[in-house]
Design brief:
16 strands, Cyclase family protein (chains A, B, C, D), KFase/CYL (chains A, B, C, D), disordered N terminus, KFase_sf (chains A, B, C, D), arylformamidase activity (chains A, B, C, D), homotetramer, 10 helices, two-stranded antiparallel sheet
Chain lengths: 319, 319, 319, 319
Amino acid sequence: MSDHSPTTPPDGPRNGPPVSGREFDVLFDEVRTWGRWADAGRGAWNRVTAGHVRTAVSLVRSGTVVALGRPWDTVPGPDNAKPALHFMSDLGDVEAPEPSAHKDFIGADYHGKAVSHLDAPAHIAYRGRLYGGGAARELVGAGGARFGDVAALGPLVTRGVLLDLPAVLGTEWLEPGRAVHAADVLAAEEALGVTVGEGDAVLLRVGRFRRRRELGAWDPGEACAGFHVGAVPLLAGRGVALLGSDGDSDVRPSPVEGVHSPVHALALAAMGVPLLDNLDLEALSAACAEAGRYAFLLVVAPLNIPGGTGSPVGPVAVL
Amino acid sequence: MSDHSPTTPPDGPRNGPPVSGREFDVLFDEVRTWGRWADAGRGAWNRVTAGHVRTAVSLVRSGTVVALGRPWDTVPGPDNAKPALHFMSDLGDVEAPEPSAHKDFIGADYHGKAVSHLDAPAHIAYRGRLYGGGAARELVGAGGARFGDVAALGPLVTRGVLLDLPAVLGTEWLEPGRAVHAADVLAAEEALGVTVGEGDAVLLRVGRFRRRRELGAWDPGEACAGFHVGAVPLLAGRGVALLGSDGDSDVRPSPVEGVHSPVHALALAAMGVPLLDNLDLEALSAACAEAGRYAFLLVVAPLNIPGGTGSPVGPVAVL
Amino acid sequence: MSDHSPTTPPDGPRNGPPVSGREFDVLFDEVRTWGRWADAGRGAWNRVTAGHVRTAVSLVRSGTVVALGRPWDTVPGPDNAKPALHFMSDLGDVEAPEPSAHKDFIGADYHGKAVSHLDAPAHIAYRGRLYGGGAARELVGAGGARFGDVAALGPLVTRGVLLDLPAVLGTEWLEPGRAVHAADVLAAEEALGVTVGEGDAVLLRVGRFRRRRELGAWDPGEACAGFHVGAVPLLAGRGVALLGSDGDSDVRPSPVEGVHSPVHALALAAMGVPLLDNLDLEALSAACAEAGRYAFLLVVAPLNIPGGTGSPVGPVAVL
Amino acid sequence: MSDHSPTTPPDGPRNGPPVSGREFDVLFDEVRTWGRWADAGRGAWNRVTAGHVRTAVSLVRSGTVVALGRPWDTVPGPDNAKPALHFMSDLGDVEAPEPSAHKDFIGADYHGKAVSHLDAPAHIAYRGRLYGGGAARELVGAGGARFGDVAALGPLVTRGVLLDLPAVLGTEWLEPGRAVHAADVLAAEEALGVTVGEGDAVLLRVGRFRRRRELGAWDPGEACAGFHVGAVPLLAGRGVALLGSDGDSDVRPSPVEGVHSPVHALALAAMGVPLLDNLDLEALSAACAEAGRYAFLLVVAPLNIPGGTGSPVGPVAVL
């Protein structure tokens, strides 16, 4: 059995260095922005002013539109433990006949490794606290989240930056378990001619779906390339508004003792930075390479779900 | 009981003139664009070239972002026969503890009168034929649509035009049943200083949600303001790519003998023009009025559902 | 507007006498059986021994089988705020062709007024305590109930007794809001020639679905005939194992100050007596009248849902 | 890797003899009972008269109640491609406070290998024909089945017979792929002291869940013990009303050329005999062995789903 086996991901050889729980807590406090914005529930999206919107729009050159959402995946697999639902509710034979209507039901427990989705701040609590410091137990119940929900976020229009790590490193993909460090971000900026700035959406490509297409599916909960927590202060210092990835931004296995998704905790709970998980960045990678530009207009348009901890999305990049 | 009763909509006094089935068929053939595009499944979205995208982007002035999606509505009512589902699948107590994760399931049989959604061409067949002429019975099955599905459409970035009829007419809303005619469209263009053109997305505001807020919900399947079929040739001649509304674009009751949703039939099945139903256009109306401009960048980012006849959406306007 | 209006139920003229919160708490303690059984999660079903099963079986005379489950109701209405889901997932066109298979998805948020269902003890907590005294907050979470769930209950085979109140009173139904008192139970026993005993399932018919068929649907949350809490000590003294009804056993509006479903609280939380709600008892009423017997074999076969607070069911009576 | 590997089921060494498509069609005609009953939609359940019910009830000796339904399985796996859904819709924090209510949503696309369920006649068509000869395409649509649905079946109370093959053969289970022949049925009758008769429900135990517990899950669609079609004429001759199994009654791989589920086709489409799939028969096996009796009262109480092609069930045996 080769070490590229789709069902047996390689051990993450470089998910480290390990980080102790205590070190992580120091890091959490370092990047924390609680209390910074009046409209706390929107978190770091407060960074995206009308001026940022105008700047983002001004990046459009060719008018090329690239969709970043994966196909709605109804088939279970190692990376799809909660298959999405899609049923036809009318095939033109249920309601009045002319015109005939075809209708469908969709459903998804969308957090996980398969559905392209946005994480709102309410998705994650660290030590029982949501972004801003409120107690999760009081703010999130069976009726949904009363703080930091996706309806409070609304849509995002901003500058997107693709950190195309495989392109920078000259590989097809990053091996599962490969941590992306601050030095990698800086090297990518240099190589790709782009600088992450205030209000930007940073999209980290690790080549997951390229690898999946060639080697088959594996469980990214076991091993996936993504940011090491050590890279987060750099991103925090730049004032990012959103992190997205074809993984889920966290390198796995987690290098942090006792914390299974440390980048989630830092981004969502400390910094109020929403996440985009499970994007398909293959077409965007090709489009950026062709255009020779890695910054673009990005539009994220979640469903308006009051109390929702996120939303399935189909983000759009315009080059 | 007043004639503004929320549960007893007034009879549509001006949904006419009545149109016979034969006249409708002539109209259908008149606006039909079958065979026009190589990528037939995308229908009229083929009209939106990269040049249109650039033009749309160039409309942005203030950077004001307006969301057009209604709240995900889980409460049944006269306009919500199939309430959307929203359940919490994890309240931080199901999976590993740190960070704790809040997760939710969403589901919807989204066609209807409550969920803001996109209709893909596969949603509607007239006389058994989908857009392009294929037999619906062969192209749509329990596994979904094999032609004209929402995954084939992808996202849309184009110029949006708001036909704000109540603003033009100086009313709070159009009464349910009020038909919007070609003359209304022309008058709106004149009054609002905008001209619908090739590749545009036309958003028709009838003030449904303003009326609903003030008078309560009613069944828009019984009575709703919307286009009379007689207005469609004008829109077809202009080369529209998308029709959207806070209703569903069709005036109801239908003025066409034996055809319950004639604008749907013309737009989707004859012209390949997708529809946006149940948008909340109140904030956009205010934003356009304030800006004094009724054309803007519009982004529609449906979920990437292979075989789907549409998608719940949260479209975004940028002024 | 007549006082039989389907949408405006009459005020419950006789839902009283009113009961104070303090009186209710005394009643709760009076009927409480916490600590009585080793297998506490099965509550009063511990009363149904193998001997009771044999007795129940011995009641069968004619071999007439009567189904008590309402049709799965996918249509919203005043008594169906959360319509059940039913979608075809395969119409013989999704999987391999011979034989062709038709498949369907069902779904329901089944507690409410429309689906025939069993309430397990975990469904209800009073003052934060489940049956047995455990804290609901610790025992029930997003993953389900860890005590008193329907999987712990399993099926029930016992003697069923139909208290057919309209038959006793010579009416078609009890008016919504009519309370059923201990005296009514005793009178029914006398008139119907049956005595409720240890381990029995008591089915209270109020004629809800007869009334619904003739006058239309109304919201039984607003007004429904059912037991007054004053009748519960009698039932408790008899050692009932299960209460069922074509309503939900509670008279509504509740006569108890500050407690919306007091019979639910007494039965489930104090006595560990599961409930069957929304049964269709019309056919059983006719069958019992024809047989001249109101006791029979009853089988309740819930779905085996670990953590479930109940289950949709189709109980079966055999006369 | 041992030949008991849970993920690599052994090839079915004895799923044969192979049967040609032509031979199968002859068999189909041989066992076909189309036109036999006035209430055709109930199929072979017409065999179960009130007299059969009385006989079944008279079998009860000890009063032991055994549940046959598997736990509702929300975890995907090789035998669970469509995990069932279970979400809490209220944890006592959504509706009015006292008593507090815990509520849940369940959902399932229940046909498959994981949910214990009943197949109604409408589930299967052979050569486009449902039981009775009606065209599936006309009788089953997006709104469900208009013939042979589970609501037409209603509940079943009859004599159950456990054909406990592993007990007969002195093994823990039948290996996946092992066909059960007429000779096996006769040998089991002899060994277990029971004779299958008119109106009986035959439950075939192959020990699937014993094997699964010890060796792990595998895909029973690839290999599972079950009846060879050659055993069906014997069962047909005996007048069985129902077939059930801890598999799905069909040996897999199918020995019939071009027919993936031939016992399903014969039972449902030719004979109108409903099926119970994925039962957990381990406890029943132990109870029958202890009692020394393999015939008992069986109650199958499906949900009353109009148009449903079956139902999740929790059947009950009473010894």
